[in-house]
Structures are given as C-alpha cells and as structure tokens.
Amino acid sequence: MRLGKSIVGTAVLWLIAITVLHGALNLQWFKRKPAGSAREQQLGVGFIPVTCHLTCPVTDYINRNIEGHGFFQPLRFSGFAELKEMFLGRPEEMPATFILAPMAIALREQGVKIKIVHLGHRDGTAVVVHKDSNIFHTADLRGKTIAIPGRYANQKLILYRELKKVGLTFNDVTVLEMPPPDMPAALQTRSVDAITSGEPFMGQTELDGYGRVLFQAKDVWPGFISCVLAVHESAIQTRRAEIQRLVDGIASSGKWIDQSLTNRLDAAQFVAKNYYNQNPRLLSYVLSKPPDRVTYSRLQPLRPDFEEIERLAKEAGMLNGTAHFDDYVDDSFAPESEAIHVPSFQVKK
Amino acid sequence: MSTNPNRTGNSAAWLGAHVGLPALVVVGFLVGWHLAVRWSGSDLFPTPLEVFYGIVELARHGLLVKYIVASLFRVSWGFSCAVVVGIPLGLMLGWFRPAFLAINPMIQILRPISPIAWIPVAILWFGVKDSAPIFLIFLASVFPITVSAMAAVQNMQSVYIRAAQNFGLRGFRLFRRVIFPAALPQIITGVRIALGVAWLVVVAAEMIAVNSGLGYLIIDARNAGKRYDLVVAGMVLIGIIGLFLDLLVRRLEKFDEVRWGYGQQ
Questions:
Q1: Alpha-helix runs per DSSP H in chain B
Q2: Model confidence over B126-153: pLDDT tens digits?
Q3: Judged by CB atoms within 8 Å, which residues 282-341 of A form the interface with B?
Q4: B231 to chain A, minimum CA–CA distance in Å?
C-alpha cells in the first residue's frame, strides 16, 4: 500500500497548500489587522450592487477613510433570494439588511419579527422599452411582455399603479419575472417588450443605445421607495447603539451624496471599483443623468408612504394586508432632516 | 547505433495524435465560434478574442489567481471530504447487506437533488463562509463515490472471495488484501466522475455570498452590466481546469494497483 500512502500524503499536502494560498490571497490571513478592528463581531449588513443600496457601501467607505476602520460589515449578495435566506437564517451574523419594502412587509406578515428603520433611497426606478418599439405611452403596453425583478419588487407596484391609471390591469399584459442583470440583454434581443428594475440596469440600456425610458419613477410617483433598511427586533433590543450608528451613518451618507454632483460622481467611482465591480461609467451615468434619477434624502420611513405601498400591494395581490405600519416600522432611529450631520469628506485625487 | 528511427517516428506520431489532433479541433471550435458571433451580428455574445482580453484583464487586476485558488480550495475540501466519507460508506454498504437495505433508499432519495436546490439550506446552516460552498460540493460528489464503491463490492466476482477464504483470509485481512484492491478500479471511476461533478457544481456553490472564485466571477460579471466577456472567460477557465483535473485523476488508473481488477472487465 505504498502507493496509497503516497497518494494520501500528496492529497494532504495539496489541501494544506491550497488552504494556505486561499487564506493568503482571499481571506487576508497574513495581513496586519488595522488598529481598532480587533473587536467582537461587527454588525453584518446585507446589500446587492444596485443604486437603491448605494448608501451601504458609501457609508462604509466614508467611515473607513475618516476613522481608519469600518463599524459594520457590508455583506454583498447577488440577488434578493440569497440575501433573504441569510437575513432569516443567520440573524446573528446579519441582523440588518437593505431589502425590498414589500418583501420586508411580507416577511412581517409571515411572522418574522423585523422592523424597517430607514429608507435606502427614493426614486431610482424606470420602465424602459426598446428605442425602435411603438410603445410611447403607458397604454401602449397592452398585450406586451414586461419583465419585472420578482414577486415582491416595488417595480411590480409602480407598474400596477401606472397601468391602472390608463384602465389596464395585469390581465392585459404579460408580466415576466427576471433577474435585473438579465434584463438588458432580453430587451436588446427583443425577448421582452419592456423592462423595469432599479439602476444601473435601466441606465445600461440607454448607454448601450437601444433603451428608451418610458417613464421614471420620480416623474410618476415622486418619492418612490423600493428598498429599505430592515433589522431584526432581537438586534434592536441587544445592539441598539450599533443600529443607531448605522442609521445615522446612512442618513449622513445619503445627504452627502445629494450635496453635490461632484460627490455623486466620486461615489460612483469608489463604489463601482471597491464594492460593486461595475464599470464606473455606468454608475456615473445613472447617478447624474439626471441627478435626481435616484436620491438619498428624505429617508425617514413615513406612515403615508407605507400605507400607500400596503394598499397598492394588497390590491395587486402581493400582500395579505395583515401587517401595518406600527407592526413593521420602528421610526425611532431615523433622524429628522435638520439633525443630519453631513460629513466633510472629500475624495483624494 | 544510438539512433533508433522507430523511436523518433513514434514520438512524432504520439505528438500528432495527442496534441496535434486535439489542437486542430480546438482551433476549429474557436474559428467556428468567431464566425458564429459575426454571422449572428450580436454585440452581446463575445468573440474568442474578447474573451481572451477578458482573461488578460483579470490577470492584470490580480483576480485570476485569486479566483482560481478560491475555487480549487472549495472543491479540494468538498471533494476530499466526499472521498473520506463516501469510500468507506460505500464499501460498508456493499459488504453488509442489512446496511445496504437500510440506507440505500435514503441515498437514492438524496442523490438526484440538485446542489442548487440545497443553496437555501446551505445558507441557513453555514451562512456566507467558505463552508457553505464546500458543503454543496461535498453533497454533489459524495453520492457518485458512495454508489460506485457500493456497486464495486456487490458486483465482485465471488470466485475471488472464495479463493481468498480457501487461503484462510478473514475479516480485515480479506478486506485489505482482496476486496479493496478488486473494487479499486470501479472506485477510481466513481472518484473521477465525482471530481467532474464537484467542479461542475462550483458555479452553483459560489452563488452564495462568497466574494471570490470562478463561479462567483460568472455571477458577478452578470451584475456588472454588459460584461459577457467575463462570463464566458469564467466558463473557459472552468473548462480548462476541469480538463486538467480529469487528466490528473486518469493518472491514477495507470498504476498497477489500480489495474488489478481489470482482467475481469
């Protein structure tokens, strides 16, 4: 059995080698820990690489550059399904997350004890058609196929709302659920007639020259909310100070982003390169053309906004209507607009 | 006297058969791919050259080695755990019929469940550490190994066992001297299949929020706007590494210890 032993020996050596390599290259095992980061588990916060969640990486980046270390751990996901599973299944590791507002409300309806404590953004959604199509008004969508991100996406709500204005229902169109990253290709190849999701996927179709905006959320539903920051009630009870700091950071970062076009473009650069792995040009486009396509001010969760979402979602069949504002919102964290401190942060050139 | 014409001829023929012919097919594939992209007029699907530049870009950013190492790390551990668990389990099930009757139905129930279906469970159990993709890869590869080891023992020529018993071998010595060597070729086949499956599963396994790996590269490139060159680059890298892994396992089949049972197949 000498051969067997040599094979086992080789396998063990290989496992050791690949583990050390992986640890060194991807897990930073041998890098010097920055001072101040040797603390107990940081608050894990989930996000996906879209503009609705931009304040998560912006807060982290600004904080790391001002204080030398972050105070929470951003956890990036590729889609809401994985993000939701982590949020539900591992609340100690990820007690907070950016998440779709209707999804958060639906989870509450299903008995998950979470609270919405802040908004992620306002606006930042569009419905886009192919530039050569004959769709120029919402009513032209009759009989067409429209891709939406998923069952609990607010884009489904805004579609429902706008179709209703022109006397149409979901029965008059074909609604297709599709991951947003796949939507631009589907529109370009005319597999679908219209697409709707958060940015930067709508902006991508414009940049590439085949997308035409049918309408922007900001123009038909001003102050539109898609994603919110949701936190487990257990974390609110046990880690209140950290959550307050997180909310304050997000409110501040949001105001910083909205402070100037320069800040927006700087944010596009450092977020695209360090967090989203996207082309900075794409993120720059959606953050600046126009500058109010997506905004990050007025992020307090307000009752009228959520009651409208609740009502429409119930009508559209997305929610049961069994959870209400006081069930799923804790508005004690969100600062008043005047109380938000804007960090004096400048990106080094 | 030192020159052997046959040796040179054999060497050239060997090169032609083992390197030249496959290279011709690869070139044909690349040319066909390029022509298909041009003919379809699509600017979404990348040409081979664009994919090559994508790979160069990854290398320049230092991500190529990082991602390959990350995926190999996960597959190495998942696959190794599957071997350590699957071979003994399979041998035991093959040898002890009551154990086979008790456990085989559960194995056949779990075997066809896709690793993608296990993703929510992996996240619930392991979170977003390396252990989640390792679990998925283990799960995907332990069944081919277990089933092949089990079948190897069950299908063994009973004449081997009777002959060994005539020579007085019992228990562990019988196992070590006769059963295991005779089963080894089929076990190696199962291991080879399992390694292919393990490598196949890496894309699904890295859909969980790890931030490195070739499967992650493919998922990430989809989020990056129109970077299908990187999507296909990930696919190409997975394919090439898969080829090397297969060649590696094939080498095991060349050893005499492994060939022991081939006479009867």
A1: 5-15, 21-40, 48-60, 63-95, 97-110, 115-126, 131-154, 158-166, 171-174, 180-200, 202-205, 214-223, 228-252, 256-259
A2: 887 888 899 999 999 999 999 999 998 8
A3: 282
A4: 12
